[in-house]
Amino acid sequence: MSIKKIGIACDHGGFELKNILSVLLKEQGYLLTDFGAFELNPSDDYPDFVIPLARAVATQELERGIAICGSGVGASVAANKIVGVRAALIHDHFSAHQGVEDDDMNLLCLGGRVTAFAAAEELVLAFLNATYIGAERHVRRLEKIRELELGNK
Hints:
By secondary structure, this protein is α/β, with parallel strands linked by helices. The protein has six helices and five strands, in the order βαβαβαβαβαα. α1 (15-27) crosses α5.
């Protein structure tokens, strides 16, 4: 396991799944930073938790992040507003590792209301165990995204 420092965040829609995954990740030896939510509050807002996580990933304070809201869509939208974050809502094993291998995905988004616990565990471990390949075509594509983020395209 080369990835060690990871973060996790959720709103009320991902609260139960975050707590389950946190136990798994600590048992697996990851150094986990929890950005909340720390209590179940049906009126909380995912950006309040996901944006600080995304910023920590973008600044490389953390190596990767996991964001969970009800569907995972809002968490993905919010995380991708932070320059340097490459977040995706993931529902399948292939995309969980391929997103890292080809696209250097650094933040995994899950839907707490739509992803079964066992499936979430599998997706998270596939994401964390994957390594960016860095083939020329992947580097070229990511450079186009960086240019867009910098406002040059």
